[in-house]
Amino acid sequence: MFRSEAEQLSSVVPFLLAGLDCGEKCVYILDSSSREDIVDALMAARDIQAHLESGQLSFMTSDETYLKGGRFDVGRMLNLVRDNEAKSVSEGYRGLRATGEMTWSCTGAPGADLLAEYEARLNGLYPESDASMLCQYYEPSFGHDVLLDVLRTHPMLVMHGELCSNPYYVPLDEFLSIKGGHVPRETYERTSHDILRRVHLSIIHRLEMRDFRRTRRRLSVLESAGLDEIGSLVDVVKFYNELAMDSCPDAAVRDYLGEIGKRCSAIHKRISFAKAFQLVGETEIGWRSLEEDVERAVAGVDACDVSLSIERKGIEVLADDMFERAIRSVLENIPDMDVGSREVLVRCRESEACLVLSVEHEGKGVPEGAKSQLFCCGSRYGNSDGYGLFLAKEILACAGISIRECGIPGRSTRFEISLPEGRYRLQPPIL
Question: Tens of pLDDT along 84-134?
């Protein structure tokens, strides 16, 4: 299920590349895309020319497969899958990996109304089959009744780029009975049992999380006490170091003492990081005002001048108390803040299926090779201390939120914090 070309390719490309890597014959059935579109997307990830030339990766069209002869025939299509699977194995491949664009079924072609039956019967090939199938559905092209049948006939789903085990999958015989107007007793019993199972699992999960947090709080108290003791000892060293600097006439010794003072400050910063990291995942997640959290984060930063632009007011995010700290950590660790202006623009906008909070600074940017390392613990780059961005990533990940750097090297730094659907909402009106 996808709503954009980016979502489509984020699933299709790794699906095909994995098949090529494990020695499967890969077939792509085109309908709304062109062969050039898919080849270009694959080539952007890796050079697949050898796979194209060997025939390990091949392309067909919906007219050659689903609509061969001008109509859709369930039996013929199932036989086509079986025949291609057998041919792949006979040619020395481990099996067949196929993916097809399903928009052909929206044209009103003869037999297209049997799509749901085909999808259900396709499951009957497993588990004996050596084929892996990925059916591509562009959501805006299909009615809700068709999409609901798609949900019911696929045991695994890729929903907007995320692989999901499907609790709404209906086994073949049950599905065909339901489509024929008869609801088997097994369907009711399976559904009611699933409801009870989910309730019981929810209760168990709440109890386990309660016990986990209780234990974690006890450990956090001990760890915090230890960190506070270390901090106090560092404060003593720093105090006597400052006294020594005030009374020392030797410039070289004063330089050494200055280095000691800097190291004491660095230790304090690490202690602050460790105490903050202790809290990651500790507090309950709830709905928070995005605007208020961002404003508090901006107010706590002195290293830059921040302009705030939020297109839609009244947005709430599903996160914990550390969300504000994550935003502040990003603002405090902009890698190229020592170059260019002090101005930073923080913007919030809605994109397809997500809310994007961006932090932008015009400077020298981050080279492509360094982008993936920015969020690694201890990896320093430019003005980033190696810990703040790691802390921000961990805080956001606990709430199902992602962050990446996608600025233009040589020109700007741009962090994008993406909140998927379900992680943000408009505040309900005050009655």
Answer: 999 999 999 999 999 999 999 998 899 999 999 999 999 888 878 888 999
**Do residues 15 and 97 touch, judged by C-beta distance below 8 A?**
yes
Using the Cα atoms of residue 108, residue 109, residue 114 and residue 115 in order, give the sign of their dihedral.
Answer: negative
Task: Assign domain 5-182 one CATH number from 3.40.50.10860, 3.40.50.300, 3.30.420.40, 3.20.110.10.
Answer: 3.40.50.300
What is the C-alpha to C-alpha distance for residues 384 and 380, in angstroms, rounded to an integer? 6
DSSP states along 9-68: HHHHHHHHHHHHHTT-EEEEEESSS-HHHHHHHHHHHS--HHHHHHTSEEEEEGGGTTTG
Interatomic CA distance for residues 392 and 117, integer angstroms: 47
- 204-249 pLDDT, tens digit per residue, is 888 887 777 677 666 666 676 777 788 888 889 989 889 998 889 9
CA distance 297 to 283: 18
Q: Is the dihedral of CA 278, 282, 283, 288 positive or negative?
A: positive
Contact 357, 392 (CB under 8 A): no
| Phi, psi for residue 282 in degrees, rounded to 5 | -85, -35
How far is it, in rounded angstroms, from Cα 92 to Cα 72? Answer: 30
| Predicted TM-score of the model (pTM) | 0.56
C-beta of residue 136 within 8 angstroms of C-beta of residue 127: no
- Beta-carbon contacts of 53 under 8 Å, excluding residues fewer than 6 positions away, are none
**CATH number given to 286-426:** 3.30.565.10
Which amino acid belongs to residue 87? K
